[in-house]
Amino acid sequence: MKEMKDGLVGRDWQIRQVTGWFQRRLLGCEDVGVLVLSGWTSTGKSTVLNAVAEAEGVRVVVLDVVLAGSERGLTEWVWSALDGNEDASGREGPRRCRFDHIMDVADAWMMGKTSLENGEVHPQSRSVSGNGLVPMFPPPIALVLERAERLQMPMYRDDILESVMTMFGKLPGDRVLPVVVTSRWIAPLWSGSVLPRCTVVEFPGYSRDETHKILLKMHPASSDIERELLEGFLKLLLDVVYHACTDVRELSRFCSVLFPTYLDAGRKSSWSPSELYQSVLPFLQSALDNLYRERIDVARGDPSTALCDGNSDGLQFPLCVKYLLIGAFLASTNPPQHDRRYFTKDRTRQSRSRRRTISHKSSSLPSATSQPYKRQSFSLQRLLAITESLTLDQRDPNPLPLTLFGTSLLTHIADLTHLHLLTINPHLTEPTLTCNAPESLIHHLATHLQLDLAYFLHHDPQV
């Protein structure tokens, strides 16, 4: 336990809570219910879970809600993980199962394991431990539902969360340990009758000092001089970037890219670390300030003319912001009841005739110079679901995942609001947004990303 706490900064309380839950579940105490790890990305949820599971001799099997894509896919993954303890997130994918509803998985699996009550070992789980003894039961597994907040994406039913938690509650507590990993922003989902029994462990964001210690562990210095320069660079980086991005992995990428140049300048120059800090600080601050606003002057008119630079690089926006702006445009123009039709994983399984119909209709869609689309407000939750569907292009056999939260999504929305490309409409329950970006800008973005915008736009045949 002490070595675990020394390796994880600022997570002593979380380690104690997760360890206590594991120990009680392994003893058969099901009153603690499902373990829910709640917190923003890069707050140590998976690290603590894997460390505690390894210490307790429990194997971790991860089920990714986004990669599953539908209830059918999620059901197959759960069945694959239970039937044979296979890695459900492996490249080969889950094995086909005969269930269409996730509620049936636990009942069928329990009926197939009743022979274990007589001490009989399942053939697939027979293994020899380090002392040469054959265990009487298969080793316990932690069934981890990753990114559970995305169960509210359009491809899932409204009651899928309750169904998953009911299924988890039927599993034997000493052999299958159900864990849910989710983001903090959907915390209200866990109130009410959805989770009758659960143990919630909150993972708050790291403080600045904790982030500094973590980055020092992630980038060990080879000499005293390099360590002194590294500490100065991390102070510089956190002074400039920490208020906009607290994602440890993102900050680590910044350090990997920028620190070699800083280190080379520190070794070759006669400047002291403090003088080097003062000389680099204004340039780094200017680069951050211009990250979203390069050559933009909103006060002088349409921002789309300033955003487009006319060369092959397209817009001076990060990649995820381009997808975010297109997602906002689609959320503002498409009726919500048609999201399942355009943004689910199964959309790529349409027949060729359906694809030809889409291509035929695209010629009649309003363009940037014709009648504009009618804009409507949309929720942040809907924007996240559409944007993630755009980034996870299922037509690519090897899609490149794009982590929106790793680049401080709320900061991006604030910048787009500052540029008058989005408008936030305050409400008592949940704020809504409206996309103000010109259609010419959206079409330019889609062309730059090689995204067929007509493929996702809803076309009303009666119009």
TrEMBL record:
- In what ranges is there compositional bias, type Basic and acidic residues? 339-349
One GO cellular component term noted in the UniProt record for this chain: nuclear origin of replication recognition complex
* Annotated segments matching region Disordered: 339-374
Domain of life assignment: Eukaryota
Tell me which Pfam families the record gives: ORC5_C (PF14630)
Q: What is this protein called?
A: Origin recognition complex subunit 5 C-terminal domain-containing protein
The GO annotation for biological process reads: DNA replication initiation
Cite the record's Polar residues compositional bias ranges. 360-374
Lineage per the UniProt record:
Eukaryota, Rhodophyta, Compsopogonophyceae, Compsopogonales, Compsopogonaceae
Q: Which PANTHER family match?
A: ORIGIN RECOGNITION COMPLEX SUBUNIT 5 (PTHR12705:SF0)
Origin recognition complex subunit 5 C-terminal domain residues are 318-457
Q: Which GO terms describe its molecular function?
A: DNA replication origin binding
Comp. bias intervals (Basic residues): 350-359
